[in-house]
Amino acid sequence: MIKEVLGSFIENLKTAKNYPFILVIATTDVSLIPGITVAGASPELTHFTPAADAEFLVLGKCKVINTVPITPDGIPTPALVTRASLSFTKVTKLVVNAGSKILPKIPFIDVGGKPGGDIRKYSLDLETTQRIIENSTLLGEELSNTYDLLVIGESIPAGTTTAMAVLQGLGYNAIDKVSSASPTNPKELKRKVVLDALKNLPSNTLGKIAKLADPMLISVAGISLGFKGKILLAGGTQMTAAAAIIKEFNKEKLKDIAIGTTKWIVKDRCSDIISLAKQVGVSLIYADLDFSKSKHKGIRVYEEGYVKEGVGAGGASILAMVNGAKNEDIVRKVDDMYSELLISKN
Amino acid sequence: MIKEVLGSFIENLKTAKNYPFILVIATTDVSLIPGITVAGASPELTHFTPAADAEFLVLGKCKVINTVPITPDGIPTPALVTRASLSFTKVTKLVVNAGSKILPKIPFIDVGGKPGGDIRKYSLDLETTQRIIENSTLLGEELSNTYDLLVIGESIPAGTTTAMAVLQGLGYNAIDKVSSASPTNPKELKRKVVLDALKNLPSNTLGKIAKLADPMLISVAGISLGFKGKILLAGGTQMTAAAAIIKEFNKEKLKDIAIGTTKWIVKDRCSDIISLAKQVGVSLIYADLDFSKSKHKGIRVYEEGYVKEGVGAGGASILAMVNGAKNEDIVRKVDDMYSELLISKN
């Protein structure tokens, strides 16, 4: 079941004629800070996660690494949920590389980006920031000729930290409000990194974004600014930061946008997406998923606060539900895919 | 008016519900051979032409060079005709970089290709060739979820020479049958280069393609092999070589394909697309354009055999006509765009 938290957007999904699933990938050096993210078995491996997620989404297998991305505990990437959910739809999957250190070995759209640095120093230079916005806007404009709805997901390790930095830098109250793929959100570390990053902040918007934002957020904002139809931002608290950037450039645009996420993000006691979405002024819906009856422990742990969201898993589940799939259909498909992965691994 | 020469394909265009215009760009070092191509003001500048064509198509202006690509005589790129024609349609323009030395400063789809070398030595290594085919096939598959027709154009200087080499290498009689953007087709030079390239040819198909083909031909073939609907190959004699590569991998696929070109290619006395299309077994249609009443000399010279085709100009004109535009509408739009260019230049 799809649930509406803020605003009303579900009707737009039901009446949409033609939409793609876009995955925007990027990396920053923030994910190399030990303990800040579990989106990879080690800090170094986090730079492979977005490319591997993109490959799994499109191909059903990874090429840049041997298996699917896992947490240090061995829990698989939410790309599994995304791919399983999208099997109930007939959508074109488009991968946009906004700036990933490792490139996926599948076709992808290049928007002239670069990987982000460590935001305690600088994420991106102004020229790259401007180029990502312009090219992504152009991409959004072109896609308007084919589609009336875009569903945009993301994969970027440590993306909640850059999201917190952007939100705080743009004047929102975001400290301790962003989510984490771990049940024990490393809030103190994130806060420390963000407060460091906020020192010596440029006063103009573009300067703030270049200093604090990751390339994914900038590209998602650009695509949305250029697109003429409705947009479902498929992600958790990070997408409130994308919406905040969109608002800086075109406040009216927020009317056409909702964040589509999972139950685990909305119900999370260690973060507060409802507060963030309210502050920014963007609609919020979620897929009321329940993985407690999965055959696999690595999937059942979603109910304990592991993973929660990522690679547009919530938005993809929402699409599956719009196309008639029930929670048990999605769970069965996720289980089947996970079983296949375990077989091919052995 | 759209005219059918071989097979019957026009009905597929009329019934198609949703299609993009895809421009596949690449370069090879064949274009550096003095006198072999006029697709650039000098041999060195030919490497900028595909990126500049892509930019003009999407943006209406070029970024990698100051003005639009021109011949050494100052005649502008056929991208002008393509952009003017597509203004009568509502299509998404997608640029695929199959291997261009200069990258366009707009969003493009990367299929993991590389620029081709000089075919007298070697165009591409086997690994790159395989990667371009696989990634392009995957792209074609994904696009099947959105579109029921693809229109695929090209921009690659000296592409008719690599096309002749591929056709001849795959067993067709192509010597002196490929076209040229110049009214005085440099046939002797092309023949010499091709005959040199055909020496020490590997015996297997992939080896032949790697040695002789440019990245554009390989990518166009791959996209077509992966796509599940109808395909209009928007180009001149080069597209018979793309069709020949498609045939090597899947002969049945040719039933879904037609080449869509211009009157100037079909009526050209210095080349023979009808013979090539017949030999390969692919349908052929053309836009019966007449530029004799253009306000600009650089456009009227199409009637004297200059330019003829390129950047999918023929296929784009066909689309304009399917959407109700008449020859005079297209000429007026081309003239207006050319006038704007001349104003912005001064």
UniProtKB/TrEMBL annotation, chains A, B:
Transmembrane segments: none annotated. This is UPF0284 protein D1866_06730. InterPro entries: Nict_dMeBzImd_PRibTrfase (IPR003200), Nict_dMeBzImd_PRibTrfase_arc (IPR002805), Nict_dMeBzImd_PRibTrfase_sf (IPR036087). Belongs to the UPF0284 family. It comes from the Archaea. GO terms for molecular function: nicotinate-nucleotide-dimethylbenzimidazole phosphoribosyltransferase activity. It comes from Acidianus ambivalens. PANTHER family: PTHR38811, UPF0284 PROTEIN SLL1500.
